[in-house]
Design a protein that fits this description.
Layout (H helix, E strand, L loop, with lengths): L13 H6 L29 H8 L2 E7 L5 E7 L8 H7 L1 H22 L1 H8 L1 H19 L1
Antiparallel strand pairs: 1-2
Helix pairs in contact: 3-4
Length: 145
């Protein structure tokens, strides 16, 4: 039998469930900071998730690794549940924002290549493809100078 005093995330979306918390229940929140707490803290008067995030101001240092294997630590502050979604995290992190921009650029580039008939004809012919790649290599060399 289901106890309606508790939120059941498996039965509904977690974010929607958190918004629909009843006013007469106790909310237990997990630690979302790098600091270790000695013992649980009871805080009265927190009525909404905005109050919860405003009181605790959760932040976490995340160690990303770039394409060269170098660590890129970033501290991310959480102001709402939306900040914990993939898009929310990317908006809070320069590293993730750059990765998403690169992914979008590559996806757009692939889409353009697939729809560009003239380029497909060049790539289909071995000699033309080699000549095209040589031109690209020269362009890259000029840009890098």
């Amino acid at each position: 039998m289901r106890d309606d005093r508790f939120v059941h995330p498996q039965a509904e979306d977690t974010v929607a469930a958190a918004r629909n918390l009843k006013k007469d229940i106790t909310l237990i929140a997990a630690q979302l900071t790098d600091e270790q707490s000695i013992e649980p803290e009871v805080v009265a008067g927190i009525q909404t998730l905005a109050d919860l995030f405003g009181h605790y101001k959760p932040r976490k240092t995340i160690d990303f690794v770039d394409e060269n294997g170098q660590p890129k630590p970033e501290e991310i502050a959480f102001g709402s549940l939306a900040d914990m979604t993939p898009r929310g995290l990317a908006e809070k992190s320069e590293f993730l924002k750059n990765l998403m921009q690169n992914e979008e650029f590559i996806s757009d580039f692939i889409r353009q290549i697939r729809s560009n008939k003239a380029l497909q004809a060049v790539l289909a012919d071995e000699a033309k493809r080699k000549a095209f790649l040589q031109v690209l290599d020269k362009m890259i060399a000029e840009i890098e100078v």
